[in-house]
Design a protein that fits this description.
This protein is α/β, with parallel strands linked by helices. It is built from 14 helices and twelve strands. The strands form two sheets. It has a seven-stranded mixed beta sheet, sandwiched between helices. Helix 4 links the parallel strand 5 and strand 6. The longest helix has 16 residues.
């Protein structure tokens, strides 16, 4: 209410007189895993074996901070700084992003946003991050009317048209994702890579049903499907596997052996006819991670984006992939 707002203004003024900057109010605190420091009431910090890593998180929701930490740790993702920004009465999201651009322990910056406050700060910081090669990935609620109303009631900030937020992110080099899960998955996909120059995807799979899900989703986003190079066609034909007439390269179970899978993937990663390679892995991801994802780990790490979709629940495979980015 008015009394709370007046108190907030007075608090910021008093802090500025003392040469201090404030986070909040309505903040659940700050965490620095590299320094083993946690000033927060969030129970997620009570989990044993928290892993330091390159992801830093700024959240306008205090509880979302803990959710990201717990989900990420379960998948083997490590975090650097986690900050609940609260009302942004003093320090803004953009100012903290600007600080993280110069932080040597931060390789990617993740944002959980309910609204865009002081967008000019974020615009300048996002452009600095882009120039420094540090991706900024945002998950912003408020796409629907109900979501916007919820964001207003929770944060107290006005919500503008969602299309304007999408345009803002795109213009300033911020990657927008649709789900909380994607907020965790995306940094490893884009970190250390130059921005993609095309939309041609090579999809390699050991399961037809899993690949169909991926192709359907990619088709909705306007992605084109690359024609497999002659080297892949020849290699698979030698095993009796015919490739053609489909938007995917289905190596079947016959091609799921590491000595076959690895060379085929290597050919796709060096092929100039695609811009990104997507591997769809079936049941072996759950029961034989050494067979299912080890060839992917060995071939990854190059200049081309390489994404993996494990169709079954496959915690060990996902952790192995996360550890190797």
């Amino acid at each position: 209410g008015e009394d709370g707002l007046r108190f907030q203004v007075d608090m910021v003024a008093a802090a500025r007189e003392g040469g201090l900057r404030l986070i909040g109010p309505n903040s659940m605190g700050v965490v620095n895993l590299h320094a083993a420091m946690g000033m927060t009431t969030n129970a997620a910090l009570e989990a044993p074996g928290l892993i330091p890593g390159p992801f830093s998180v700024i959240s306008q929701s205090g509880t979302a901070l803990g959710a990201l930490l717990s989900r990420g740790q379960a998948r083997g993702f490590g975090f650097s700084k986690l900050l609940s920004i609260g009302n942004e009465s003093d320090l803004s999201v953009g100012e903290v992003v600007d600080f993280l651009v110069d932080d040597p322990d931060t390789g990617a910056i993740l944002l959980f946003l309910e609204t865009l406050r002081r967008a000019e700060d974020l615009a300048l910081a996002a452009r600095r991050a882009y120039a420094a090669g540090k991706p900024v990935i945002a998950y912003k609620i408020g796409r629907s009317d109900a979501g916007q109303q919820m964001a207003v009631s929770h944060s107290g900030a006005l919500a503008g048209p969602d299309a304007a937020a999408t345009a803002f992110f795109r213009h300033h080099g911020i990657v927008r994702v649709d789900t909380l899960e994607a907020l965790l998955e995306t940094p490893n996909l884009v970190s250390g890579l130059k921005p993609a120059t095309g939309r041609r995807a090579a999809v390699m799979t050991t399961t037809g049903g899993g690949a169909a899900m991926v192709v359907d989703r990619l088709g909705l986003t306007g992605v084109d499907f690359a024609v497999p190079p002659a080297s892949v066609v020849t290699r698979l034909e030698g095993l009796g596997i015919r490739v053609g007439g489909s938007p995917v390269i289905d190596v079947t179970m016959a091609g799921a052996r590491p000595d076959v899978y690895g060379p085929v993937l290597a050919d796709l990663l060096t092929d100039t006819g695609n811009d990104v390679v997507i591997c769809v892995v079936g049941s072996s991801a759950q029961f034989r991670p050494d067979v299912a994802v080890q060839p992917i780990i060995e071939q990854g790490g190059g200049d081309k984006p390489l994404a993996v979709f494990c169709v079954p629940e496959a915690g060990d495979s996902l952790k192995a992939l996360a550890v190797h980015a």
